[in-house]
Automatic annotation (TrEMBL):
<protein>
    <recommendedName>
        <fullName>UPF0223 protein FHE72_09045</fullName>
    </recommendedName>
</protein>
<dbReference type="InterPro" id="IPR007920">
    <property type="entry name" value="UPF0223"/>
</dbReference>
<dbReference type="InterPro" id="IPR023324">
    <property type="entry name" value="BH2638-like_sf"/>
</dbReference>
<comment type="similarity">
    <text>Belongs to the UPF0223 family.</text>
</comment>
<dbReference type="Pfam" id="PF05256">
    <property type="entry name" value="UPF0223"/>
</dbReference>
Amino acid sequence: MEYQYPFDIDWSTEEVIDVIAFFEAIEKAYEKGVSREDLMNRYKRFKEIVPGKAEEKRICNEFEESSGYSSYHVVKKMKEQQDAAKISMN
């Protein structure tokens, strides 16, 4: 990993850790697959920290630009595949 995770300076340490955990789940979806339940929980927590659509889009775009991983596509797949145990972008 040669990139940095996006974050807001107003977030608490716990919030930064939780947002990073969400982006780590996005990475897993691309690299080896991630439990849908785990991804869902991390996304719900991410949305508690970043409730606005515009801010979510900005942060996810920053992550995609630096990592090449699309949070949007992973979350879309998670929502579409409600009966899947694992989400994989392979």
